[in-house]
Request: fold
Amino acid sequence: MAAFAAARARALSTIAEACARAGRNPEDVTLLAVSKTVPAERLRAAVAAGLALLGENRVQEAEAKVPLLPGASWHLVGPLQSNKARRAVELFDVVESVDSLDLARRLDRLAGELGRAPLHVYLQVNVDRDEAKAGYDPARLQAELPEIAALPNLSLVGLMTVGRLAATAEEARPTFVRLRDLSERLRGLEPRLGPGLSMGMTSDYAVAVEEGATLVRVGRDIFGERPPLQSGR
Ligand SMILES: *Cc1c(COP(=O)(O)O)cnc(C)c1O
Reply:
């Protein structure tokens, strides 16, 4: 637990330093500890050390862990297939990977049925229009946003993006600037879209905070390197 307390303190000070450089208040930035591949046993110590906001990218993996960690709350940060949407609504407090009107409608209906309304979601945007990345094309999001915003059982916290694979944190900066600009523009058109900006991971979260991130998703910097394995995790 002491190791996790130290890791948490380090991440929070990275955030605080980035806030100081940008003239922001550190209280406006939330640390999400991305716990994919980390066994529930280790997570117990992390939660005890104050890392109680956890992120998973697979519904199936979360299904095994969530019941074992009653003190935590959970964000889904990975792609969501429609056949897993019901389980996702039951397990997660926030879904960060909404990237189609179909998925939004389905989550809205399930949140109502399962008594989980309002379900907090982020709309995931592929701001770089990178073919390897999931997320809404910005123009398509703009077109569908009025319909998504009208869904009664969803609360639109804001926008989320996964930065492109970059050699340096600095190379990710334009992605973060684009997401912030898009958020401002879309909120001018649709006031029901919240101001949240989920952006920044281990390699670039300081830069993301400088550019306005309100939530950073940090895995390896807290839990260490993940075992090398399947499909880009
Ligand atoms: C794995 C993952 C993270 C965390 O990545 P790290 O490099 O370990 O900080 C953040 N966001 C998403 C969507 C992820 O899949």
User: Anything to note?
Assistant: The longest strand covers residues 154-160. Residues 34, 36, 57, 77-78, 162, 201-203, 217-221 surround pyridoxal-5'-phosphate (CB under 6 Å). The chain has nine helices and eight strands.
